Amino acid sequence: MALWIQAQQLQGDALLQMQSLYGQHFPIEVRHYLAQWLEAQPWDAIDLENQQEEFKAKRLLDGLIQELQKKAEHQMGEDGFLLKIKLGHYATQLKSSYDPCPLELVRCVKHILYTEQRLVQEASNASSPGSGPVDGTPQKYQQINQTFEELRVMTQDTENDLRKLQHSQEYFIIQYQESLRIQAQLSSLASIPPAERVQRESGLQSRKSTLEVWLTREANTLQKYRQELAEKHQRTLALLRKQQTVIIDDELIQWKRRQQLAGNGGPSEGGLDILQAWCEKLADMIWQNRQQIRRVEHLTQQLPIPGPTEELLTELNGIVTDIISALVTSTFIIEKQPPQVLKTQTKFSATVRLLVGGKLNVHMNPPQVKATIISEQQAKALLKNENTRNDSSGEILNNNCVMEYHQTTGTLSAHFRTMSLKRIKRSDRRGAESVTEEKFTVLFESQFSVGGNELVFHVKTLSLPVVVIVHGSQDNNATATVLWDNAFSEPGRVPFVVPDKVLWPQLCEALNMKYKSEVQSDRGLSEDNLVFLAQKAFSSSSNNPEDYCNMTISWSQFNRESLPGRNFTFWQWFDGVIELMKKHLKSHWNDGAILGFLNKQQAQDMLMSKPNGTFLLRFSDSEIGGITIAWVAENPNKAGERMVWNLMPFTTKDFSIRSLADRISDLNHLLFLYPNQPKEEVFSRYCTPPNCMHVFSCRQKCHHMTVCLIVSTVLIITSNNQTPQSIRSHSCLQPIRRRNSRGLFIKNCYIFLVSKIVGS
């Protein structure tokens, strides 16, 4: 409701813009009487590109209709009678319009609320110029809006001058016709008597001389008007080009960069509504100036007057055509990128949008967009304008789509919903490069005309680099290629060049962004975590973060060369941690229960100063996607001596059987989570409740109880200073082994748990 109250205070152009949001598609009365309800609904929670969200949209549509009907029923009295009929009519109208496609209602309302919010925000900024930007609106936005106002005034000024020139020229032509008539009369005097001819000739010659003087003076004035008008257009086009550079080369490029970083887990790139509003204003003003220049050209052709204006007008026509061409081709963009790790024979989607499609009436004859996958070399050739027609590196199914115009939001876009990469043609690889380092891109292209076929555009845009895989096992390395490219590519690069080496702090920023996004946590990587990662990446022992600030890490160190003594790379190890955390342990990470990034020696140093039974959780150095429990306890082989024990790492497979919290609960010798938290305080809320055991079958219950018995028995024996060999043959365990000699599950549990506790 607060937004609608503020929207009603808008004035001038902002008020007109707000009013233009409403019509038969969504009456302003509905906005007024249901303001509170509309602003309270979760419109932003619905993904317009996901057809599965349609049931949510249908629920909102039904709710809107019910609210309207309820509002209508409560109208009383004479005035209320008319409103009751009107609201009832609107309920029927909206149901009829949006019932076949309720997502369109969501699109419409989101656009209305967003635009109102923007207009209110801009009005608030304008009313307090002394204060800084309101609600985080960048100062640059105010400068852009001020420049648009300046351009509007300049365009209106040239329009007024053009009308003045047109009127002056029309009057000049009338007077010129008059001079021709006088000349004709003088020529016809030869046929009349001399006395009368002298008298009439004198008057006509006088009028002719006066008119010729006026025509000469007025011709110079017209030429001056034309020259001044052309110079004004020159200044307007210069400012238009400057404004377009700010919007296209700065703001739109920044949006694309945010979109690229969002692929690494960065913040969402944000909506395109503000950018589209700016691009549409540009298109409007460029087209108005183009039409003005063409009208001046027409006037010049109608009444040729020698001078430099014609040459200047030809130059202006070329400039304005270049500007509109640059705007159209630059605003054909990919709103929703295809997946950057693309598996063959798998459906994927993408959305392409033309930000000026509504203003230039492209939607009157909706163009078709085609998608093609091309290689890095083909992309380079394309940007060099080399002939690459019909070149592709694979076959995409369902790769043609007609652009749709959404009248409620004014957007023209093509939604590719069911594309599938049928096959891929790879190039010859260089050196140590693997298939998961080869980059492709999806090329989207279309052709359309504007201004009644005056200008024809062939537009193209390239997706972010994609890595094509044929098996899920390649996903890990493909993701590394994408992460490196997204993080370190430069705007305007040659496709798809990235530096081979980057500073370690730069990589830390990318890793932290990816980790927080995948684990869905505000708790990112701490300075100590990053030092641990640096030690792993550089095989260093330094604990000083400053030692790594100026160090560089190469792509080979990141994901081509194995870590010393291991059969996996730095990235493969880190990605294994991410997979483990996001699938099973994100709650424990968010609680701070997992220290994770510690080596075995660090864990030992930390635990030896703590009471027996203190434990911590750290990621395994030797196994991808493994986490181990380290705890301090008495050494069974030396009385009075303590030592740190390490369980063999648990992996995703283990946690698919039994959760971390349940496993810690099973181990009675684990008492305190480092530094001194009782384990029940930290993990009990994640344990499987005892009353959930009824969901198991009788055999599963037996297995579960037997596993617990094995654990408890092994721990008791361990505490009595038994050797590993004697533990395995201990008489306490023989009944369990005999009782389950035919049960492979229990046998495996027995061997696995004994080895975990005594084999570390």
From TrEMBL:
One GO cellular-component annotation of the UniProt record comes to: cytosol
Molecular function via GO: DNA binding; DNA-binding transcription factor activity
Q: Which GO terms describe its biological process?
A: anatomical structure morphogenesis; cell surface receptor signaling pathway; epithelium development
Q: Which domain of life is it from?
A: Eukaryota
Enumerate the UniProt keywords alphabetically. Activator, Cytoplasm, DNA-binding, Nucleus, Phosphoprotein, SH2 domain, Transcription, Transcription regulation
Q: Where is the SH2 domain?
A: 589-690
Q: Which Gene3D superfamilies match?
A: EF-hand, SH2 domain, STAT transcription factor, all-alpha domain, STAT transcription factor, DNA-binding domain, STAT transcription factor, N-terminal domain
As for family, the record states: Belongs to the transcription factor STAT family.
Q: What is this protein called?
A: Signal transducer and activator of transcription
Q: Which organism is it from?
A: Cyprinus carpio carpio
